[in-house]
Structure formats: C-alpha cells, structure tokens
Amino acid sequence: MEILIIIGIGILLLLGVIGSIVPALPGPPLSYIALLLYHFFIHTMDVDSLFWIGIVVVVVTVLDYYLQIYGVKKAGGGKYAIRGSVVGMLLGIFLFPPFGILVGAFIGAYMGAKMEASKNEVKIAFGALWGFIAGTILKLCTSFYIIYILLF
Questions:
Q1: Which of 23, 37, 87, 103 is packed most tightly, with the most Cβ within 10 A?
Q2: What secondary structure, in 3-state letters, does 87-123 show?
Q3: 126, 115 Cβ separation under 8 angstroms
C-alpha cells in the first residue's frame, strides 16, 4: 500500500512541476497535496510547517493569476489587452506547445491592445509576458521547494 502512495506522491509532484508552467493545471496546490499525502501516510511532519507552506501555496497561486493582469495594466493596457493575453496564452498551449504559451500571451496582449487603439502595443504585450514569466517563476520555486522538503 505504501508503494502506491509513494507512486501517487511522485505523480502529483510531477504534475505540480508541469502545472507550474501550463496554466491549465494548478501546480503548487498539486505539489502541496503530495506533501499532505506524505504527511498523513508516510511520515508525520511539523503541523506548523504544513500550515505555513499551505499559506505560501495559496498566496503564490493567487499572485500567479494577478501578475499577468498587473503586467498588462502597468504597461498601459486595458480590458481587451488583458483578455487577449489570457486567450492567447490558452490558445498557445494547444497550437505551439510549449513555447506557444509565451508567444500566445504576447500576441494576444498585442492584438487586444491594437483593438483598444493603444499607442504602446508592444510595451503592453511585453507587460503580459513579464507577468506570465514572473508567475511561472513563483510557481516553479514553490513546487521545487515542496519537492526539496520531501526529498530531504
């Protein structure tokens, strides 16, 4: 039974890392579920640590969704640029994986800014790209930290 739980933990950790890059999967929460499985079935951990790691996972997950919107707004984009970056990112996953996520967010924000008749379309598109990359880095760091905790 323990071997099945370890396999499940490994699968969740792998999905957590993949989900840190692919927006359709919630990366850090999947890694945290693996940590909880480890805590309840393999080896008991400090409850305070689990609590604080859970808080970090929630904050990082919320920040991830906010950072791309913030990047577009900070660069001067409006609602069409925000929607365009999200739609472009989602389309990019399926059309040109894995780099389509980055290119899609950029092109989507650019097209949304064009629809708004903005003068700084490229700046707005880079704002979307910056927000996506910042969120991805945060999620990857969180997922790798949880893996580090489980391995050491």
A1: 23
A2: HHHHHHHHHCCCCHHHHHHHHHHHHHHHHCCCCCHHH
A3: no
- Say how many CA atoms lie within 13 Å of 50 toward its Cβ: 13
CA angle 80–132–116, rounded 5-degree value? 15
Contact 91, 100 (CB under 8 A): yes
Distance of CA 23 to the CA centre of its chain: 6
Positions in the chain whose pLDDT score sits under 70: none
Domains in the chain: boundaries: 2-151
- pLDDT at site 19: 92
3-state secondary structure of 26: coil
The pLDDT score that the predictor gives to residue 18 is 93
Q: What does the radius of gyration of the chain's CA atoms come to, in whole angstroms?
A: 18
What is the per-residue pLDDT for 86? 84
The gap from C-alpha 150 to its chain's centroid, in whole angstroms, comes to 21
Q: What is the pTM of this model?
A: 0.85
